[in-house]
Amino acid sequence: MGLIASTTMAGLGTALYRRSDPDHVSRSYSLGTQRAIGRRMPPSGVLTYPEITAHLIRYQPNDATRALYTDSVPGYLLVDWKCTHLGCRVPPCESSAWFECLCHGVRYNQIGEYKFGPAVRGFDRYATRLIVGDELVADTRFRIPGPPRGTNTIDNPPSGPHCVG
Prior knowledge:
The chain is of the alpha+beta class and 165 residues long.
């Protein structure tokens, strides 16, 4: 009886620990309804969410992006805005329509795939899903590693001069 009670208590302790452990708590973040996002989305196709350090990028999936980005709702990618080189915040560059790291000159294309510089891969991202019809929700518990160097699922050159180097 003592063994069963101690085993049960150990299991209960683990369950309680996991419930209070922040790494085991779901961190869902509502990005808004698709209609509201569409109204707020600027012509650049990049909507920034500073509270979760991410950019929501509008993109039209094709066979390559659909296969690589299966954890994202079609039509959007939610990428962590931190450079995969040293973690600097990477803003969108208005003139090139790419993402360009002001710290070390890393460049990412319109959907965050690595193009140039010392970064190790494209932007990391967060999984997204639709709930209750059209509310877009991000799962920010962990980042999904970005695509490796050489990934080019869209063939869009910069639309103008680069903001860095």
